[in-house]
From TrEMBL:
Keyword Isomerase: yes
Residues annotated as site: Transition state stabilizer: C161
Name listed for the protein in its UniProt record: Methylthioribose-1-phosphate isomerase
Molecular function as annotated in GO: S-methyl-5-thioribose-1-phosphate isomerase activity
PANTHER family documented for this protein: METHYLTHIORIBOSE-1-PHOSPHATE ISOMERASE
Catalysis performed (reactions): 5-deoxy-alpha-D-ribose 1-phosphate = 5-deoxy-D-ribulose 1-phosphate; 5-(methylsulfanyl)-alpha-D-ribose 1-phosphate = 5-(methylsulfanyl)-D-ribulose 1-phosphate
Record bears the keyword Isomerase: yes
Cited NCBIfam families: eIF-2B_rel, PRK05720.1, salvage_mtnA
Protein family: Belongs to the EIF-2B alpha/beta/delta subunits family. MtnA subfamily.
Gene from which this protein is expressed: mtnA
Length: 351
């Protein structure tokens, strides 16, 4: 087993009571950190995609909620449990699709309401945020092992978007499986599509894999179908932002297309996500809120206008889509693996 080195990068770090976020808008060219010391700055960092990726967003929100409780105690000690809600609401509204955000805020709020009203909540709230962070690191390792065990030796894999150390607290979800399976000698070739318009694949996944010394071939998003038809890919392995109770999966735009192509060409489709990404309150994927972002993300690439787009041209920019459960072969979580996900098999994860 080759040692898996993913310590080369961390999306978030806690240093001297400050949440340090690696600004992913500037990668891979610049490694610049944004320091957050209150709930509002964390919410802005999430909304602006300084930090992104469902689990990483949840972890950042947990620290943001701890800041909200601390500042409510400092400024309104007599009613801090009520006053902190403004900060939590700002965090909740920062991005709509990744349920890890709401999950983390609900967990932090539940703790706050159990704490004594007349005592400083900071120590316990910060400890809970650290627990959220550390649990994600452990979950990444477990999912890496469970997912890798499903991949037969000599497999080619295709991944979409970025699901590595930049999207989580540790090894990654889908990229954690790829790292683990590569280290086990199970993968012969890794493909990553660029993932327009934000380029999480070409800017982030390629950077992470290069840092690990794992060779990767980039492709334009539209090349996925031809690649799968060529027979070079045995698995498409992706993350998730929200999984409904029946196994429908919301993930980066383009995931649904990849799932359709995979089914057409006999390629297996694996979704890797911690249970903090599963929303059992939603019966199916139809109710998952899909975030749309500004037209400039489509019309420009890396901040430069994409020539020759004429002036006055608009854009349609939903940044997630929903893959129906029937197109998903397996969902890998830290508590179990679901083959052929449906409402019944998903519910068994929580028994
Ligand atoms: C580890 S799951 C990361 C998940 O989040 C990404 O979206 P975004 O970069 O907009 O935060 C993408 O959907 C990934 O699959």
């Amino acid at each position: 087993m080759v040692a898996i080195s993913h310590d080369t990068v961390r999306a978030l770090e806690w240093v001297d009571d400050t949440l340090r976020l690696l600004d992913q808008r500037l990668l891979p060219g610049q490694e610049v950190y944004v320091d957050c010391n209150d709930a509002s700055s964390v919410a802005t960092a999430i909304a602006d995609m300084v930090v992104r990726g469902a689990p990483a967003i949840g972890i950042a929100a947990a620290y943001g909620a701890a800041f909200a409780a601390r500042d409510a105690w400092r400024n309104h000690a007599e009613s801090w449990q009520k006053q902190m809600m403004q900060g939590l609401e700002e965090l909740r509204c920062s991005r709509p699709t990744a349920v890890n955000l709401a999950w983390a805020l609900q967990r932090m709020h539940k703790l706050a309401m159990t704490l004594p009203a007349a005592a400083d909540p900071w120590p316990q709230m910060l400890a809970e945020a650290h627990a959220v962070h550390e649990e994600d690191v452990a979950a990444n390792r477990r999912m890496g092992r469970s997912g890798a065990a499903l991949i037969h030796s000599g497999s080619g894999v295709l991944t979409h978007c970025n699901t590595g150390s930049l999207a989580t607290g540790g090894l990654g979800t889908a990229l954690g499986v790829i790292r683990t399976a590569w280290a086990d000698g199970r993968i012969s070739r890794v493909f990553a599509d660029e993932t327009r318009p934000w380029l999480q694949g070409s800017r982030l996944t390629a950077w992470e894999l290069a840092a690990d010394g794992i060779p990767v071939d980039l492709l334009v998003d539209g090349a996925g179908a031809a690649l799968m038809r060529s027979g070079a890919v045995d698995w498409v392995i992706v993350g998730a932002d929200r999984i409904a109770a029946n196994g429908d999966v919301a993930n980066k735009i383009g995931t649904y297309s990849a799932a359709l192509c995979a089914r057409q060409h006999g390629v297996r489709f694996m979704v890797v996500a911690p249970t903090s990404t599963i929303d059992m309150q939603l019966a199916d994927g139809e109710q998952i809120p899909i975030e749309s972002r500004g037209a400039e993300e489509v019309l420009a690439a890396g901040g430069q206008r994409v020539a020759p787009v004429a002036e006055g041209v608009g854009a349609w920019n939903p940044v997630f889509d929903v893959t129906p459960a029937e197109l998903v072969d397996v969902i890998v979580t830290e508590v179990g693996v679901v083959h052929g996900p449906d409402a019944e098999s998903m519910a068994r994860l929580f028994e």
